Automatic annotation (TrEMBL):
InterPro entries: Ala_racemase, Ala_racemase_N, PLP-binding_barrel. Its cofactor is pyridoxal 5'-phosphate. It comes from Caloramator mitchellensis. Keywords: Isomerase, Pyridoxal phosphate. Residues 8-225 form the Alanine racemase N-terminal domain. CDD domains: PLPDE_III_AR_like_1 (cd06815). The keyword Isomerase applies. GO terms for molecular function: alanine racemase activity; pyridoxal phosphate binding. This is Alanine racemase N-terminal domain-containing protein. Gene3D superfamilies: Alanine racemase. SUPFAM superfamilies: PLP-binding barrel.
Length: 355
């Protein structure tokens, strides 16, 4: 076996997707399965598609392009770059949009491809990432009007995203803004809007307590499928959290002081480190570093191990309190946060094993 190794239990991920699909379909909610954390890994994505998601969603066109054999509508969830519209129209069917200039470009390429392309107009209800700010009604209305004139673009829905930048929590109040907006637009333009794409995994607790406003009928779910987590990264009931495990090999074990000797300058990343003097401790070094994953995103499965820090290629751990007598060549195992999984999947130096 080669290390570092990321083990991914695709059966558990598929099961998470199945359970979320059942739960949401029961409530008349469509699921876009968001696969961006898996860095285009086709085996895992296939398992998620097989679970029965309605739409395959990713933030990178390169990933969606590599999923072209999966017969399922595909959606780009990062608002598109003007330079990628040709590929967008070729490899995907739906996009989240916020700039009319981009939609015009989509219409242009969709005409050339003779394909009716769907867009979800993003409305920013307070998190301050993508979308037209909800108070700018004129801008929203004129965008809708422009889109309705386009022959090759269909306004598929209104959407919003929360928690990702501003950390704003989805509530019945802020999501109702979208529902009201939809009613207003339908009245003004005499046209039905099929979907309200109301958010991500962080919206699940609101849905489960029955407080998600009526009318939100699409969720874009990533973290809940991948790691069984939702708001505040808290575990969601009825889902697996132990879907992934990172194994890293020990390359040094030594007794050393806990406080470096000499005058302290800055570390490899320009930070001035601080150390507590705990006397002589047993320290291990694992062959993985910040180039692969930020140590703050790793959680040792042996709870008596403490992560001390990392440089680009070395992870430093205090193993003094562990009951296990680790040896050179042994591996240490870690759980990963969402951010940890994202970078571990992206690192070409981490081997992946899908089981
Ligand atoms: C990442 C992302 C999602 C999925 O979020 P999770 O918290 O992983 O469920 C949904 N929508 C957009 C626009 C995203 O960028």
């Amino acid at each position: 076996m080669r290390y570092p190794l990321l083990e991914i239990e695709s059966k558990k991920i598929e099961e998470n997707a199945k359970r979320l699909i059942d739960e949401c379909h029961d409530k008349g909610i469509q699921i876009a399965g968001v696969t961006k954390v898996f860095s285009g890994n086709k085996k895992i994505v296939k398992a998620i598609v097989d679970a029965g998601i309605d739409i395959l969603a990713d933030s990178r066109i390169e990933n969606l392009k590599s999923f072209k054999d999966y017969k399922i509508p595909k959606m780009l969830i990062r608002i598109p770059m003007k330079s990628q519209i040709r590929d967008l129209v070729k490899y995907t069917d739906i996009a989240l949009v916020s700039e009319i200039e981009i939609v015009k470009e989509i219409n242009k390429f969709a005409l050339k491809a003779n394909k009716k392309y769907k867009v979800i107009l993003m409305v920013d209800i307070g998190d301050l990432r993508e979308g037209i700010f909800f108070e700018n009604k004129d801008e929203i209305h004129s965008a809708i009007q422009e889109i309705s004139k386009m022959k090759y673009v269909e306004l598929y829905g209104l959407g919003t995203n929360l928690t990702c930048y501003g950390g704003i929590i989805p509530t019945s109040d802020n999501l109702s803004i979208l529902v009201e907006l939809k009613k207003e637009i339908e009245k003004k333009f005499g046209k039905q809007i099929k979907f309200i794409s109301g958010g991500n995994s962080e919206t699940i607790p609101l849905m489960r307590t029955g407080n998600m406003p009526e009318g939100i009928n699409q969720l874009r779910l990533g973290a809940s499928i991948a790691l069984g987590i939702g708001l505040y990264d808290m575990p969601l009931e009825n889902l697996y959290q132990d879907t992934v495990k990172l194994k890293s090999e020990i390359i040094e074990i030594k007794q050393k002081p806990s406080k470096p000797i000499g005058e302290i300058s800055v570390d490899a990343f320009g930070n001035k480190p601080h150390f507590e003097d705990k006397g002589i401790r047993k320290r291990a070094i694992c062959a993985i570093g910040k180039q692969d994953v930020n140590p703050e995103h790793l959680i040792p499965i042996d709870e008596n191990i403490q992560i001390l820090g990392a440089s680009s290629d070395h992870l430093l751990l205090d193993t003094t309190d562990s009951c296990v007598d680790y040896k050179i060549g042994d591996t240490l195992e870690f759980k990963l946060t969402y951010g940890g999984l994202l970078s571990a999947m992206t690192s070409k130096y981490i081997y992946k094993r899908i089981i």
